[in-house]
Structure formats: C-alpha cells, structure tokens
C-alpha cells in the first residue's frame, strides 16, 4: 500500500479553501497539512499540485448503470469508468434494471457484479413495489443505501400507487426512502390532450407540459404529507420546479427529516434548450422553464436543495429518436457533473465550497456513509484533483459512457479533472483509467 503526498494544492473542504498538502497512506488520509508544512519520513510518490484544486471525491446518489439486462447501452464497468473520469468516487444505483432490484437475490447479484466490475465505490437501492413490503426488514442497513419508491411514472411493477401500500411503506420502511414524484393521473390526462392536438408523438418541446409542474407538485406534496404523518425519512429525487421548493425548508441538513435532490440536467438546461438539443435532454421529470431552473439554482444556496446528483441514465442515440412518447427519457451525465457545477461556480451561481458541500459532504451526511465525503485524517482517501483554466471540449473521443454521446458535446469546459483517487489508489490520471482496481461497497452507519 503506497504512501502518496499531494503537495501544495488548493484544498476545498469543510466550507473553506486553503493551500496545503495531503498525505495518503494506503487506503486512508494519514494527514492534512495547511500551509507549507510537510510530512517527515518516507513516501512513495509526490504529486506536485501547484495551481490545482483538491476536492473530496464526488458521491453521486442517483445513477442508472443499466446492469443487468440493459447492458447494450451501459454496464457497471463502463459507467464506473466514466464516473472515475468525472471525479465521482462513489455512486448509488437505481433498481429499474432487468430483473428489477425488488428481491433480495437480485440485490445481492448487483453487489457481486459491482465487486467484480466497478472501478469506484458503490451501493444499490432496493426497489419498492405494492407487494414486497415484507422484504424491507430483511435489508442490511449497513450495506443498502435506501429504498427507491416510484410514486408515478415507473416501468414494470415498481409503481407504488395503492394508498394502503404507500402508508405501510412510509410507516415501516425503517430506512431512507428516495422517491420519484410525478402524478400518473395528471400525466395521463396531459398526454391525451397533447396527442389530440399534435398527434401520437408530439414534439419534445411539449414534454414539460405533459410531465407538468402540477404532476410533479401533486406527487411531491403527497410524499411530504406521508413523511410528516409517519415520521419517515424522505429524500425526494430530481426536483424540477420552483413550486415544489415550497415543500422544503432551509434548515441545516443535519436537522431535516425531509430532503431534496436537484440533478445536474435541471440545474444546467432549461426549456429553451429543446430547440437545439431536442430529445438529447429529454428526461423524467422534464426539464422545465428558465424560471424553474433559476429557482433551483437559488435553492442550492438557501438550503432548500440539499444534494446535487445526476440521474445518469444512458441510452443509445437510436433510442432517443422521436418526440414526447417515442424517444426514451434519460441522458448520460456522470462524467461531466463536477465540471458542469464548477462552471456554475465560475458564473457566481454558487461557490466552489458550496459545490463540494452539495456533491461530497452532504451526500455523506445524508446517507450516513462511513468515513467518506471529506478530506479528514482517518477518512478513506477518495479525492479528486481538478485544474482551473484548462479548456477542453466534450466530444465522442473523450466520452467514456458506453452509449458514446452526451448532450454536452461540443461544449468547452474550463475545469478539467486531472486525477481521481479511490481508497488511495489513482484510478484516473490525465485521461487514463487504472483498470486493475476495483472499488468497495459503501458502509452506512445507521
């Protein structure tokens, strides 16, 4: 196990930025040095990081890696490589694969595959259904990140829409519930209306009208109501509207029982982008107005949005052809989430310290992840070195997701990920992936 000194970086951690050095000893951070102080004794490698920023590795609480069953467009190996290239050192993956992760056997199979394939750290959500509530007490809370609940807009049998099943789930879950909130009845009515006006497959520009503000708010409001009535720990995924923000308060994350995630796509794009990007930015819930996007951005700094995730959801471009109904929803974002949010920091939307809070610190605290998410002595050495003023352009040549495309193609970023360390091991360095390393299962302190 190597001793590595990262020397003279701008370290961003615990709400401040300072120049210093970090000593990695094996898997963990042995010491953090502020200023010019340096360690004594032997170390195997020195990385001179003058001018670079050292951040905790990003923890993405919301990805779809399509493994098993949909591996023609993504798998744990390909998408974990993309994650490493983007400075993401840990991910939590969703249950809508084939088979769905709604049985204990399917859940264990995913952990087995990740141990074999994943270049970064991992955990998996267990999918709730109307009928599998008896399995919830059997879940290993130290290993499973949470229960994923689809309260609308789900494939397969993971739509939980029966009142009795919802109340039972919220009352008896015993762990964090992460909910996708869109009201199916509203979407169905809107779909019928727009198909009557524009045919069976309306232009994608109508997607935010079909999967509307009302659809999102009605479902999110119900989830919040159930959480308040039962005391359940609720985390609502991919908030996309200004109206939904009324449901959340700006208290400290550590004093909340109901929290909110915003995804990079909803923070970065708005409905004006459908004209140029079309179905490449079609996702559920839909990307909505510029006013909605700006409200979400403000909520990052006033405390109503707690976490930034990606909802990384790769598809082949051939599957993205069509309009509101024929084109599938979802886009690959895990490789570009950090640099996209650092771009927003350059624009004054939030500070670099707030980027680290929302993408690294807050996920670690919200999910009670053991010794990750911070640059602290004794913590796992999950770290990322990023370079400012290092222009590079997204192209198919540098996209690592198996699907091979991104809605950000031809965009030039000014920040660049230089190195990603997972448990002390350099897994990504200057465009090269260390394919010999495998990440670890996350451990949750509950």
Written description of the protein model:
Helices cover 26% and strands 22% of the residues. The chain has 446 residues and is α/β, with parallel strands linked by helices. It folds into two domains: 87 residues, Urease, subunit C, domain 1, CATH 2.30.40; 309 residues, Metal-dependent hydrolases (TIM Barrel, Alpha-Beta Barrel), CATH 3.20.20. Strands 1, 2, 3, 4, 5, 15, 18, 19 and 20 form a nine-stranded mixed beta sheet that branches. The protein has a six-stranded parallel beta sheet with strand order 9-10-11-12-13-14. The longest helix is centred in the middle third of the chain and has 18 residues.
CATH class of the largest domain: Alpha Beta
Count of all domains:
2
CATH H-level name of the largest domain... which superfamily?
Metal-dependent hydrolases
Strand content: 15-25%
